[in-house]
Amino acid sequence: MKYKYNMKIYADKTGFPLVGTREFGLFHLWPITKIQFERFISETNNFGDKWYDSILKLNPRISWKFFDRNNYEGLFITGITHQEALSFAYWLGEGFDLPSLDEWRNFSQMLSTEGLPELPASELSEHAAHIWRKLKGFSETPTKFALMQDGLAEWVRKGNRYVGLGHPRQCFHANAWDPLNDEIITFEKRASHFGFRLIKRQANDY
After folding, report:
1. Whether the predicted model's global pTM rises above the 0.85 cut
2. Four-residue CA torsion sign, 172, 174, 178, 184
3. Which residues pair with 195 in a beta bridge?
4. What angle do the packed helices 82-92 and 34-44 form, to 10 degrees?
5. Nearest-angstrom CA–CA distance, 201 and 106
6. Residues 3-27, buried b or exposed e (16+ Cβ, 10 A)?
7. Tens of each residue's pLDDT in the chain, 206 residues
8. Distance between CA atoms of 114 and 106, rounded to whole angstroms?
9. Which candidate, 36, 69, 66, places its Cα nearest to that of 130?
10. DSSP label at 162?
């Protein structure tokens, strides 16, 4: 299949997939998982066990080996603030950031138009490759596979403030949001349905 955007799959330093195009730079294919965030915690010692236990109570961990279509939201880190998401971005590498509202929506529309490349042979970690195969098995569309539909609410920038975009499943968080039209505002300190993915805008090498 020929892709208008010349999409390629890369891996971040945790072995999880980034979609690379000249137009968008690098964009995480999925929201950040607990596997990725736990590596960040272990390498930085920024957060203690008590803090993380409180996060897991909002959205308990499930096994990356045994998740299914009924519980996959448990793979992903939720309940953190946008400041904590930006701390992860700084740790992941230079240039990583929360996407803007328009960047998130444009990436979603690109996926719905273009589809996705095949699973790369060796770029991804064992965890990520297994998640890829299982999600692909029950995702009807590219945007559902990327969890931009039936995923989480995700932190994005809107000017000098932060809002959410996304469309969680009703069984995870009841809503009527259209991510291409509705912005999600939360007044909770920690919202169990809020996660994030990152962008790296420097696109010169992609």
Report:
1. yes
2. negative
3. 154
4. 70
5. 13
6. eeeebebbebebbbbbbbbeebbbb
7. 455 667 889 999 999 999 998 888 999 999 999 999 999 999 998 898 999 999 999 999 999 999 999 999 999 999 999 999 999 999 999 999 999 999 999 999 999 888 777 888 678 999 999 999 999 999 999 999 999 999 999 999 999 999 999 999 999 999 999 999 999 998 888 999 999 999 999 755 54
8. 12
9. 66
10. E
6 Ramachandran zone, left/alpha/beta (phi>0; psi -120 to 50):
left
Domain borders along the chain are: 8-200
157: phi then psi, degrees, rounded to nearest 5: -85, 140
Q: Which residue has the tokens 């897991």?
A: 56
Q: SS3 helix, strand, coil % of the chain, rounded to 5?
A: 35, 20, 50
Could you identify the residue written with the tokens 């999880």?
Answer: 16
* Contact of 39 with 49, CB cutoff 8 Å: no
Distance (Å, whole) CA 101 – CA 117: 24
Residue 62, token pair as written in the block = 């499930």
